[in-house]
Amino acid sequence: MAAEIFVKKQTIDLRKKHIGPSCKIFFSHDPVKIVRAKGQYMYDEKGQRYLDCINNVAHVGHCHPDVVKAGAQQMELLNTNSRFLHDNLVLYAQRLQATLPDKLSVCYFVNSGSEANDLALRLAWQYTGHKDIITLENAYHGHVSSLIDISPYKFQHLSDDERNQTVHVAPSPDVYRGKYRADHPDPASAYADEVKDMIHGVHEKGGKVTARHSGVCGQIPVHKNVSSGLFIFQDMRLQEETNQKEHNNPCDTGGIHIAAFIAESLQSCGGQVIPPTGYFQQVAQHVRKAGGIFIADEVQVGFGRIGTHFWAFQLQGEDFVPDIVTMGKPIGNGHPMSCVVTTKEVAEAFMSSGMEYFNTFGGNPVSCAIGTAVLDVIAKEDLQGNALRVGGYLARLLEQQKEKHPLVGDIRGRGLFAGVELVKDRLTLTPATAEAQEVIYRLKEQYILLSADGPHRNVLKFKPPMCFTEEDADLVVGKIDQILTELEEALGLKLQNALSLENGSSKRKLPAEENGHVYLGALSHDRGSSRGLPQQAKRLRT
Amino acid sequence: MAAEIFVKKQTIDLRKKHIGPSCKIFFSHDPVKIVRAKGQYMYDEKGQRYLDCINNVAHVGHCHPDVVKAGAQQMELLNTNSRFLHDNLVLYAQRLQATLPDKLSVCYFVNSGSEANDLALRLAWQYTGHKDIITLENAYHGHVSSLIDISPYKFQHLSDDERNQTVHVAPSPDVYRGKYRADHPDPASAYADEVKDMIHGVHEKGGKVTARHSGVCGQIPVHKNVSSGLFIFQDMRLQEETNQKEHNNPCDTGGIHIAAFIAESLQSCGGQVIPPTGYFQQVAQHVRKAGGIFIADEVQVGFGRIGTHFWAFQLQGEDFVPDIVTMGKPIGNGHPMSCVVTTKEVAEAFMSSGMEYFNTFGGNPVSCAIGTAVLDVIAKEDLQGNALRVGGYLARLLEQQKEKHPLVGDIRGRGLFAGVELVKDRLTLTPATAEAQEVIYRLKEQYILLSADGPHRNVLKFKPPMCFTEEDADLVVGKIDQILTELEEALGLKLQNALSLENGSSKRKLPAEENGHVYLGALSHDRGSSRGLPQQAKRLRT
């Protein structure tokens, strides 16, 4: 196919006509038309190069020749479903398994992170015989209906009546802006205790829980092999079994009925949040005690991105093993594929329902060849090592920005997964949303692709292809420096007191609203120019 | 990658270790290892050729060079998400739209038939503000949790408590085995009236319907533009609007609250069922009158397979246009992709919720290049015409089998989508399940891949790659002839009375159970040999 078939205006018009208007585009008032890409660079129809700081899907670099070759060769040979034996499937499963703790040994291959997370819920419901799910504030787990239900990022504007009553939202373990901050003596325990309290809350209204989905209640011997696989307090198990016998239906019990806790190992859309170490262990303990399991969503952050480990849940320590890990975006470098990995016990409980699981495209030989090639490239080019090195370098550059710019409230991240939270005030943490959007927009004008996310859309999100270099980091941070300097000048912002009154530890009230108005005033003043910030913010919410 | 990495035994062992046991394999006691495929043929690790009569996913032929080339070239150039403008996306949407009625103009690209059907439900819930779904007996619409809920093929063994109470199952419009048969003067109306009655039933228990999913009730101006797009009785709309005003929540009304009727245009897993012409029109009328929309699932049967039309819903006549069409399997010749197409009105209502729809892999340039290449090959090689011609030839051959073999109860189909229903008795229609499994198994021993499905697993299912030839049809039907002859000899079955007492029209009681026992007896007698049928049936339920 030619690089360009339509002129840009035609492409836009056809898109308006034929593509669902809910499918948003970056920079909607002046979108970018990309016709080719290589490594960490994308090129528009005029040959202009963009530095790509956001596409974690193009994990080993856009159009990596090894991945393209593996896909093309297998496409020529065979592409069919997994009802036939094929070596690619088992080889790839074996290779993936080798990156995980031994217990996580059984794979289900599917086509997207959404399919993976939906299957994870089905596994949890079936294995536990329970229905209730605990999810985190601002979480995003996918676009199918069951996942909208567990994604506050999507459903938070809905009324209580419109939400799924079996889904419970725990506070985001955000030590910068959350309930317990960096100054708290033990934020991991504090946030985990919130989950524990939530479980008790669910228990108290236990009778309300009903089996609406297939495979929920009383269908299989609940926790048949649970003692061999999971951390369960035996006394509570016994109590539950007694309840089940009495009621002849585990859902009738006023007892334990959590199906799962699900969280991204590092929250991405939720604002690049890094949970405090030990949080997952404690949550897992509470959840397993309540008969539930722990699902770690690695769709955004897996496959070596964090540098020190292959999986982000491993940041919590070797003593932590989730019951289910879901994968997605980077797994096939853009090829539609993904995977759910779980324990033998969970897999056997799922099978015991008697319901076959068949996924037409999942685990086809092409997807598995591509997945294997991605693993090969990560190893061959030491991309995990690169993420550690370049990620560390990027973090140091960004820390310097924090020292210099009052708009920079927090720098956080691991490896090539980083967030820069912009605030109007380091004490009140008033989100600098319009400013974040302005940074993104001005970077785009300088051919750098970055995005802003989080509940306030004020967190600059770095998740570039893993071949990102120190030079790339210099380039993007240099540009950000310039933009922040200009913005702060326009806003009349100076560092001054802010540095001495560092964030988070303080509950002291400052005139936040007033400050907000001052800043907005400054921005309004700037609106006389062609780039009024509120307007930008609106058009940039892509 | 080498054609074979592991010896077959190792592949099987690794599969047992690392692949979810719910993922079934064909011929589980002696599965087939396929290493390459071309056109309508698959090849095992020893180079043995199999004739493929079942893989409708490999629509234009396994590994079609044009499709492989389009995919490989685009993979080299760019593979990224639809937040950037790309011509492949809009070109492909335009091409797909051209195959559909004008009203169906808005596309959402996703990764699988399951993602497509789940999105169709979300669109229906959002557009109508209602929740209840009517689905057909034996229907299968996908593997994500929302679709298990509407797939009796999957959930029918669950208890009432375990089923989703907002899902209602209408009788399958099967004129061979269903409630109204070929002898009925107007089966289309009779089956459609069943849906109408069901809607009234749903109305009567209206108060039970609650908004559990996001975007269900009161969130958008319900049916804002409905008059422009859909067939709606204005008086009922007015009544509904009045109810809404009174209750301030459309879900509180005891009035109209069907969200959608969903059906495969021709039921596949459900037993290759061809609904009588006019059924969809009448159902659509009833459903739209009740505020709902019509979803046609073309995942199995679309893209010219039926020969006379590009889409199977078009068999119902030009006056029938669904509100949503979902696509899948054949769309990318094996590449994981799919699409939902709907009207502008439905798409705008979905957008009006304010919730973005983003699908990471959906509509990427590689998928769109592949989809376009598939459309090109269908046209260039006149595969729709081939389906008509070869399908017609196959149907004639199969009709001859029916004349010859008492086990053949019914021949039905359109183009290269055909079903052969095996029965032990043409009057009682006792399913010849074990015999169907035996046919499949013996064909496999003769290197022909066919499957049996339907609620009784007694329907031989033909849905081969579209390049299937008359010689292929001769080969498979010749083998079936031999196998049926042998089976009937072993069972002592002769045509005799059966022919004169043709199926369906009769409610006359024959000693069905007795006949069944006679046949089972014959099979039991045969169990002394190495191929006892009940045993086969068990091992072949793959």
From TrEMBL, chains A, B:
SUPFAM superfamilies noted in UniProt: PLP-dependent transferases (SSF53383)
Region (Disordered): 521-542
Gene3D superfamilies (alphabetical): Aspartate Aminotransferase, domain 1, Type I PLP-dependent aspartate aminotransferase-like (Major domain)
Record EC number: 4.2.3.2
Example of a GO cellular component annotation carried by this entry: mitochondrion
Pfam families the record matches: Aminotran_3
Enzyme class, broadest EC rank: lyase
UniProt-listed PROSITE patterns: AA_TRANSFER_CLASS_3 (PS00600)
Reaction catalyzed: phosphoethanolamine + H2O = acetaldehyde + NH4(+) + phosphate
Compartment list: Mitochondrion
Main location, first listed in the record: mitochondrion
Similarity-based family: Belongs to the class-III pyridoxal-phosphate-dependent aminotransferase family.
Protein name per UniProt: Ethanolamine-phosphate phospho-lyase
